[in-house]
Amino acid sequence: MKNGLVSFVLAVVAMLVAGPTRADLAGTIGKVKGAVVIVGTFKSTNSPRFSLRGTGFVVSHGNLGTGNLVVTNAHVLQQPAEEDVDAALVVQIRTGQNELQMRPVTVLEVDKLHDLALLRFEGPAVTSFTVRDSGSVQEGQAIAFMGFPIGGALGFSPVTHRGMISSIAAAALPTPTAQQLNEKTIRSLRGGASFNVFQLDGTAYPGNSGGPLFDPETGEVLGVVNMVFIKGTRESALTNPSGISYAIPSRHVLELLKRGKGN
């Protein structure tokens, strides 16, 4: 009887020390992968018909588990000079293991200051992310981010990277459309500060723009990847990555969602 009581007490203590069950990164990826989308344009007479612009992720107004709203970067929506002006803005959503479904989108809100945009796609809702207030994020905290690096050159399956918050610094984006940084523009981040950004030690690439920065254990969104520090040319991001990227804190995503409720 005494031994049984001791075992029971030890089991309770072990449960209290362990705290709530938290998923590992592999489990988290499986849970959120379907909420990461490709943002691009489509026109049936173009070759190729679809052109990738960046990454986005699905959210809902009430964190209901499904939604039809997409958050991405404002600069992802900007039309490249060589692109057909009549091409329609769309997202591609994963509906199966290797199946993508194209959905037309409407732009609801654009926040150029924080380089964010809110879109709504047509059709049934799909798996969505929960967005957490980034006020509790700390330097040294583990993070993960997911997207389509190098403009889909690695295929249209989302790629996940791990890292940590290496710095939380006051910064002003050099331009509302800055998807890349170089030595000159990175210096301007430290002057004329307007809001905090997360500096990451994880290596993001062009194409990751607009992708979710999330807690690797809970899958909750903590920010939006928006800038990559590139040493030299764009091509050098492949051969000589800097390992320095930036993300917009998720508090600005929550503000964007609040403004988009009336649409």
Tell me the series of helices and strands, N- to C-terminal: HHEEEEEEEEEEEHEEEHEH
Fold-level CATH name of the largest domain: Thrombin, subunit H
CATH architecture of the largest domain: Beta Barrel
Q: Domain count, please report it.
A: 2
CATH superfamily of the largest domain: Trypsin-like serine proteases
Give a short account of the largest sheet.
6 strands, antiparallel, barrel
Walk across the major sheet and give the strand order.
1-2-4-7-6-5
Number of strands: 15
Classification by helices and strands: alpha+beta
Nearest-angstrom radius of gyration? Answer: 20 Å
Q: What is the straight-line distance between the termini?
A: 65 Å
Low-pLDDT stretches are 5-21, 174-180, 229-242
- Give the mean pLDDT: 79
Provide the helix percentage: 10-25%
Strand fraction: 35-45%
Please report the number of helical segments. Answer: 5
* Backbone shape: globular
Name of the CATH class of the largest domain: Mainly Beta
